[in-house]
Amino acid sequence: MTKVRLDKWLSGAGLGTRNEMKKALRAARVRVNGEIVKDPGLHVVAGTDVVEFDGEPVSYQEFVYYMMYKPQGVLSATEDGRDPVVVDLLDDHDAAFDVFPVGRLDKDAEGLLLLTNDGKLAHQLLSPKKHVPKRYYVEVDGELTEADVDAIAKGVTLDDGYLCRPGSLLILQRGAVSTAHITIHEGKFHQVKRMIQAVGKQVTFLKRIEMGPLSLDPDLEPGEYRPLTESEIETLLALRG
Length: 241
Ligand code: URA
What we know:
Elements: E1 3-5, H1 6-12, H2 18-26, E2 30-32, E3 35-36, E4 43-45, E5 51-53, E6 56-57, E7 65-70, H3 92-95, E8 100-101, E9 110-116, H4 119-126, E10 134-141, H5 146-154, E11 168-173, E12 177-184, H6 191-198, E13 202-211, E14 214-215, E15 225-227, H7 230-240
Parallel strand pairs: 9-13
Antiparallel strand pairs: 1-4, 2-3, 2-5, 5-6, 7-9, 7-15, 8-9, 10-12, 10-13, 11-12, 13-14
This protein binds uracil.
């Protein structure tokens, strides 16, 4: 039985912030089981109580999941004093769900970022024990070689002495500038950049294209996002265990 505060229920349905909902309650715009209710702290039960806002039924949606194409220059955070953050890219309705990014992409990196308010799922996706694969497209200053492929497959040692788990490097183009797909199963700070540094080269462009079962939707432009489909949510929830 899910019991939720009335103001949270209403803002969770995307009707506005909790403060706006408190005002709406004072203005007698909300009924529970047909009765006007003004107490934002009243607990309502999903599946049992009927909540109406301006006469329209409001169902309870606890968790939301969005796939975003994070653009460069934006932080994977919910707030920051100076820089723009990914939740600024959400419209007010979607932001009302108090979502946060699952893991981080560097400010200068772009690509797939999952945003949700499902803390349990986020924890599972980020848990070092789950080894959820993340795949990146990289552009590298310098020539990637078969020796680099082998080194990454064995597990390179980062500048701080950390021994990475085996990853996989698929060279797409080699030359003075090389391109590749790299898949890793952990998420240390600047990990891909530091793995490439460990083989003596430098990442100049980094884009995440997959995370676990999710692939970046080719229809999304940088800065755009969309809700996950039902089947994407199902495959993710299977990871939640
Ligand atoms: N590895 C990095 O170096 N940066 C990221 O943003 C993600 C993985």
